[in-house]
Fold:
Amino acid sequence: MRFSVLGSGSRGNATLIAAGTTRLLVDAGFSGRELAKRLAVVGVEPAQVTAILVTHEHGDHTRGVGVFARAHGTPIMMTEGTLGACARLLRGSEEVRTYRAGYPVEVGELEIEPFITVHDAVDPVAVAVREPATGLRLGIATDLGRPTLQVMHALRGCDALIVESNHDESMLWSTGYPASVKARIASSHGHLSNQAAARLVVELLSAKLTVVVLAHLSEESNTARLAKSVMEGALARKRFKGTVEVARPDRPTPVLDLAILRERAGPRQLSFF
Structure:
């Protein structure tokens, strides 16, 4: 399994996951043209995308979904609630498949395990994506107001995690945002802070985890350097020897090959003692 976060932040979010000939796009929060451009950076043609899975209806996750699907004949996967909320983006000619949280679905050589999250959207989900042939597993949880027990259970045992590290708590309250916006971001239906993200990943640590990608960073109340420092500091105390990457809003991350990263890490890469 290989993956790249094509971009992440308030301006757009999309992640490409590949296994064999399968190419799954999780969210399509950039314009159709921009999505094609970013796919080209990681060596993928738009026509190669097997399906687009949408986690919730917010524009930074859906902006290009209708245009891209119509242009390239790409199936779209949404929950019923998200489909209803995205009606204005669709014209009826798209191939739409619905799925439900708690019920795994297969897309080519990948198995997707969607689960409910807490966020201010109609029917938000996060996903764990598994490659049955290798057992490799990637968890994606952005727009996560708080890590519920269900979220913790669904993300355990992952080889890689893409987790939002949205804001620094001090910087958030110092921004020029209206008080209501600050309260929403910091609420249990908003976004995880750097510190909350670090606590979540520490709780999820296992001998399998080889890479953590920090996503959905705020450009107003966070920095890549700060988010990475908080996460690496928390993981260093647990002797984590894997990789911490930061997803940028303006360009894709490198393509991360989980099989190669697993081989480099060896059979055990951390100790709790």
